[in-house]
Specification:
The protein is α+β, with helices and mostly antiparallel strands and 103 residues long. It is built from two helices and five strands, in the order βαββββα. β4 and β5 form a beta hairpin.
Length: 103
């Protein structure tokens, strides 16, 4: 699953905001029972592991020019959730890079 969140920020601003808010990702996952681990693979790629509903989702967030791209691999058992997850990412993804105080 690939979801792009457009933005008009420079990469450094996106990096800073994403780094400072990555601990909030679990708060944006519906149900409130997710555990999220993140790590930075490179300057512009943050990897994620999300454990919820007895399943683990792996993916990354890529910082690109003009967009933040969420790439998630859904286990077959959670494939039916793809539309719900895409919608949640679109709605909540902007909050991760919003100006301080706006999120």
């Amino acid at each position: 699953m690939r979801v792009a969140i457009p933005h008009d920020l420079d990469r450094e601003t996106v990096r800073q905001r994403l780094r400072s808010r990555s601990h909030e990702i679990a708060d944006h996952i519906p149900g409130g029972m997710a555990q999220v681990e993140t790590a930075w693979r490179s300057e512009d790629v943050m990897t994620m592991s999300v454990r919820t509903l007895g399943q683990e989702l792996r993916g990354d967030i890529e910082i690109e020019e003009g967009q933040l791209v969420f790439n998630m691999i859904l286990p077959p058992a959670l494939g039916f959730l793809q539309p719900v997850l895409e919608s949640a990412i679109r709605q909540q993804g902007q909050k991760l890079i919003a100006p301080p105080g706006a999120a």
